Each structure stands twice: as structure tokens, then as C-alpha cells.
Amino acid sequence: MRFNPDNAIVKLCARGMELEGQGSKEEAKQLFYQAWDEAATPFEKFTAAHYVARHQPTAADKLAWDEKCLRIALTIDDETMKATYPSLYLNIAKCYEDLNDMQQAGKNYSLASSYATFLANDGYGNMIRSGIEKGLARVKAAAEN
């Protein structure tokens, strides 16, 4: 998956990330929604949906956007997209966990784990793997209680 830094949607999301980093979350959120509204391709929609999901007020709202993001990602015919699946399933699993649906959480943590081989062996990949392992452990502990 290659991000074209000249793509208008990528630029909007990058600017939104800068604003987030500066503490301007509401302005960032507006840019992410603008990116969603202006996105024309599945990749642009996927990119914007990922950032819109991060700014949802409830776990249920975040889940809806994370699932939308995953559905779009699954339509993109690019082998490198598989590297996004662990993170997407991890996000969905965490939403289900936050909603106390441990069965769906466990299912999605397991799906995240099944795609972990597509993650790079770097800090980001290790962070996602760790999140998956911790999520699976929490679901297992909840099932034992």
C-alpha cells in the first residue's frame, strides 16, 4: 500500500494528524470528515474512514466506522492491504470488548492474529502484535471468570 503524498485526501488526513498532535482535535475531526466526503476511490475512502473512526464519541460509533473501514479495505485488490488487516481487526475487537461482547471481541482478536504475519517486523508491527496478544489474554481471562 503506497500513500501518494500529493493525493488531496492523504493531504487532508496528514493535516488532520498534525492538528491532532497540536491538540486541535475538533479541527482535525472536521478535516477527516471532509476527507471522507471528498474521497472518490476505495483507497481514499479507506484512509479517511480510518481517521474518522478515531474521532467517534462512543464505542458503538467507532465500531461502525471501523467495520466500514474494514469492508472498504477488503475490496481493494492490492496484496499490501493485508498488512492493514491486523490493525483493523484489532480496532474492531477492542470496540466489541468495550461493548462487553467478548465473543465478538475474541473472534476479531483471532482474525487480527491470523493476519499478523503480514505486519512488518518493526515498532509498529510489534505494537499491533502486542495489542492483539493482550486483547486475546483479556478475552481469555474474562471467559475464565
List keywords for this structure.
145 residues, mainly alpha, 73% helix
Query: Could you say how many structural domains there are in total?
Result: 2
**What's the total helix number?**
7
Proportion in β-strands: under 5%
Helix content range: over 70%
SS content category: mainly alpha
SSE ordering: HHHHHHH
- Unreliable segments of 5+ consecutive residues: none
Describe the oligomeric state of these chains in a short phrase. Answer: single chain
- Distance N terminus to C terminus? 41 Å
- What overall form do the CA principal axes indicate? globular
What Rg, in angstroms, do the CA atoms define? 15 Å
Mean pLDDT: 96
Structure description:
- The protein is mostly helical and 145 residues long.
- It has two domains: 1-41; 56-144, no CATH class.
- It is built from seven helices and no strands.
- Helix 2 (25-38) packs antiparallel against helix 3, helix 5 (85-98) runs parallel beside helix 7 and helix 6 runs antiparallel to helix 7 (123-144).
- The mean pLDDT is 96.
